[in-house]
C-alpha cells in the first residue's frame, strides 16, 4: 500500500467515520455547512483552512457536543486557548480594542 493509497482511503472512508464518530455528522452535512459559510471560516472568513490542511476544523460545544460551525486552524486554536469561556473572549476583545495603536477602527471590523 502506497502513501497515496492511504491518503485516498482516508479521504473516502476515514474522514467519513471520523466526522460521524466525533461530531455526529456526515460528509454531506459537513459540505452543506461549508456551503452555508460560503467556503470560509465562520469567524475570520478566510477560505484557507490552514497551512498544510485540506479541511476546516469542526467547531463544537464541548459540553453539549453540538456543532457550531467550521473554523480555520488559527480561529480553532484561538477559541481553544480560551476554553470557550465567553467572559475571557469578551475581555480579550475589550483589551485589544482599548490598546490599539492610533489607527482607523474600520481596519478591525470583520
Would you give an account of this structure?
The protein has 110 residues and is mostly helical. The protein is built from four helices and two strands. It has helices at 3-23, 27-36, 73-81, 86-98; strands spanning 57-60, 67-71. It has a two-stranded antiparallel sheet with strand order 1-2.
Structural class: mainly alpha
Helical run tally: 4
The number of E-state strands comes to: 2
- Integer-rounded radius of gyration: 17 Å
Adjacency order of strands in the biggest sheet: 1-2
Main pleated-sheet profile: 2 strands, antiparallel
**Stretches where pLDDT falls below 50 for ≥5 residues?**
none
What proportion strand?
5-15%
Shape: elongated
Order of helices and strands: HHEEHH
Fraction of helical residues: 40-55%
Q: What is the straight-line distance between the termini?
A: 46 Å
Rounded mean pLDDT score: 86
Please outline what is shown here.
The protein is mainly alpha-helical and 110 residues long.
Spell out the key features of this protein:
110 residues; mainly alpha; two-stranded antiparallel sheet; 4 helices
Topology:
Blueprint: H1 3-23, H2 27-36, E1 57-60, E2 67-71, H3 73-81, H4 86-98
Antiparallel strand pairs: 1-2
Amino acid at each position: 500500500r502506497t502513501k497515496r493509497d492511504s491518503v485516498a482511503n482516508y479521504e473516502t472512508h476515514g474522514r467519513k467515520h471520523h466526522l460521524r464518530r466525533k461530531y455526529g455528522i456526515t460528509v454531506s452535512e459537513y459540505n452543506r455547512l461549508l456551503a452555508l459559510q460560503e467556503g470560509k471560516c465562520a469567524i475570520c472568513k478566510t477560505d484557507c483552512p490552514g497551512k498544510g490542511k485540506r479541511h476546516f476544523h469542526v467547531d463544537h460545544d464541548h459540553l453539549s457536543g453540538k456543532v457550531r460551525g467550521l473554523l480555520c486552524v488559527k480561529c480553532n486554536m484561538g477559541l481553544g486557548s480560551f476554553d470557550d469561556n465567553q467572559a475571557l473572549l469578551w475581555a480579550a476583545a475589550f483589551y485589544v480594542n482599548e490598546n490599539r495603536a492610533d489607527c482607523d477602527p474600520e481596519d478591525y471590523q470583520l
